[in-house]
Specification:
CATH topology: Hypothetical Protein Mth938, Chain: A
CATH architecture: 3-Layer(aba) Sandwich
Largest sheet: 5 strands, mixed
Structural class: alpha/beta
Helix content: 10-25%
Order of helices and strands: EEEEEHEHEHE
CATH superfamily: MTH938-like
Strand content: 25-35%
Shape: globular
Distance between the termini: 23 Å
Number of helices: 3
Low-confidence stretches: none
Length: about 120
Amino acid sequence: MKLTPEARNRHLIRGYATGEVRVSDQAIHYNCLISAEQILQWNVTHQLNVADIQSVLALSPEIVILGLADMQQLPSAAIYGAFLERGIGFEVMDIGAACRTFNILLGEDRRVVAALILAAS
């Protein structure tokens, strides 16, 4: 599905498909973290642990959208708690919903990070 919001020099997700997201003209085929300013490779699997989210926290988000290719493996309570104790909003969605929500929040000038796990493990 193609997404087409305004750019304003930020990393907007332009589209997504199975195993891929498109940011500007760049096709990304790996698990990644996307903020307004950065796109980072994220070496994780669905079995997230608290150490895995340190790179997410380093981006100083106010909201984190975790997009999963496989919605059957949700994060543990420890992951939810790690964000909650820091006052960071945390939502889990499928990839499409995560991409759309990221763009909406970015358009509202929120400090949002899309943490996308593109491949089912």
